[in-house]
Amino acid sequence: MDSVSHVEEQKRELARDVHRLAQLGVRLEDSPKEGVMVRHNSESSVVVDVKSKQHLDPILMELKESVLNKAIETFSQGKYGVLRHQGRLCVPDVDGLREKILEEAHGSRYSIHPGATKMYHDLREIYWWNGMKRDIAKFVARCSNCQQVKAEQQGPGGLTQDIDIPTWKWEEVNMDFVVGLPRTCRQHDSIWVIVDRFTKSTHFLPVKISYPAKDYAKLYIKEIVKLHGAPLSIISDKGAQFTSHFWKSFQSGLGTQVKFSTAFHPQTDGQAERTIQTLEDNLRACVIDFKGNWDDHLPLIEFSYNNSYHSSIAMVPFEALYGRRCRSPVGWFEVGEFALLGPEVVYESTKKV
After folding, report:
1. For the whole model, what pTM was predicted?
2. What are the tens digits of pLDDT across the range 257-279?
3. Which CATH class is domain 45-148?
4. Which residues in the chain are classed under CATH 3.30.420.10?
5. Which of 95, 175, 193, 309 has the fewest CB atoms lying closer than 10 Å?
6. Under a CB-based contact definition with an 8 Å cutoff, are residues 208 and 180 in contact?
């Protein structure tokens, strides 16, 4: 009799453990090989809050009722009864949740103070609430950091001198430098900015401006060629780093044509110039918010830049490069729910670019 009660107690304990795992997002599934497969679905805490608190918003509950009665078509209920508007999560107006989303999407290390337009396009990929665009504009306008660091950006005057449009990713790049920065503990005093003209994806490499050309070549192989291969052409200014015989011979060996931008014609290297303007704004914002050496923040500034909406390609550079947005702790993108798979994703991204 004792053995039976002991078994029952073990069953109850096992049930409690399984329930706790479920609360953590862990599922146990039957494996085709006569075992048990453990599957863990991790979600942003913000996304979890949005899904779990929809029932607290009376307006969203009315919309759910309308969906059940088939009175509206633009809203739907997905898995676990989660309300969506055209596929986007409906955010309840409770517990300051909308304000929390705005704070995460604007001031975290993964976003770094985007402007209102960028921020709206980023958030609308996954979230919806009535008046969201207006709320974002008001939030950004109140940001004291943005008021301090955002420089007014004005396009070059006169007629543009267009250069050929690239046909594939990382085949044609722009290069430039941000110089005159405070020297860090790693002795960096400049940033090498390398931009793919097709996807607008970018690398920000901390350097010492006095590096010899061979050191730039080593860094170029390590950070660019390793990931993207050798481009067909490079557009840069006539800085000493790019006009040296070694650099020209090095690029010739890679099969890359080196082109130089024309003085007073920003159209030839305007992509790098615009990127530098954004980079400088982000550097100033990071120093105000997070302190420390600027090269400590550079990896996340690069991530933020590549995972933010760009109007010139109507998507984020990560999406143009890899076929979908990169997931971040902010919860901008739910991997697996909206992702295209297979060759369709390449076609869609290329068509948009």
Report:
1. 0.73
2. 998 876 544 454 566 777 888 88
3. mainly alpha
4. 172-352
5. 95
6. no
